[in-house]
Description:
This protein is α+β, with helices and mostly antiparallel strands. Helices cover 49% and strands 22% of the residues.
Amino acid sequence: MFKIKNLAAPLVLAVLCFACGSAPGGKKTTEPAWVSDPYAAYNRNVYLAAVGLGTARDAAEKAALNNLTSIFGQSVTSETKTDYSYSQAINASSSAWSERTSVAQAIKTSVAMDTLIGAETKDVWRSPDGTWYASAIMDKAKTNMIYLDMIQQNQQTITKLTALSASERQSLEGLMNYYQAANLADANQVFANVRNVISPGSMAGINLRTGNDLRLEASRIARDIPITVIVENDRRDRIRGAFSEVLTKGGFRTGGSSIRYVLAANLSLDEVVYPNTTIKYIRYVVDADLIDTSTGAVLFPYNINDREGHAVLSEAETRAVASAESRIKTDYMDRLGLYLSGGITK
């Protein structure tokens, strides 16, 4: 005679065990080992790994990448800051990067993730309480080679950018080359820091030029580049004086004749009449073009305009000129500096 009870007990136990390990929809409820220790799933000799959590899957994946990034401290913070200027330098210098699609794609992926090149999310798990967990990893050997490749390519581009003849060095184009080289050198320093974290000592014997050294050389080049400032309709030369002052502070020489670079500007002052007010308004417009007279090309256009008011028209005009003068002193050199360093284009 069959013993039904002996058959039923194992069956009930099996059902209970299945319920413990699964949730409706087939989701595992047992916490994977990597949630508390990512190196339980990934060999720490091969990978760098981190775990993140969030109320949604994408939030957990982003947290995992951020936690992985934090292993590198300030290195990656610097990398984020140099992303834009680095890409500008690559484009301006016609670097070999455009022909290296695998590395170019790695850079694009890095910017999209706002994290390290070579980092990727792997496992995800949702706990019974709805919290999402994700792991992020970096293959040390693969990433180390990617960064070394980028460093070597940047080194070659820096050499190309700074291999200038005497006449090329005494030009704004030469100055821009050095600024672009400095951006690449900044990026190289970050890449080197990342490699040293992944593989301590891996940068031994590799000498890198620093961005600061290249900017110092750029400042020496600027001192050999005179710029003539000419401003039309400039009463008492206040606008010309403002431009000359900021160029001098920026390291350039001003004045002279038969000079290749000319800052040609025009000041316009016009009364603006508004109804139902006794206040007199003057609108000022300053248009300034930095011109290479050897080609006639406008290298950097600049425009500011605003209005100033006063009960007396002449005083409104005085205020308008003073406002224009102040704005030139405040932001012209910063904007020109960004242009020369590849931060902005015309």
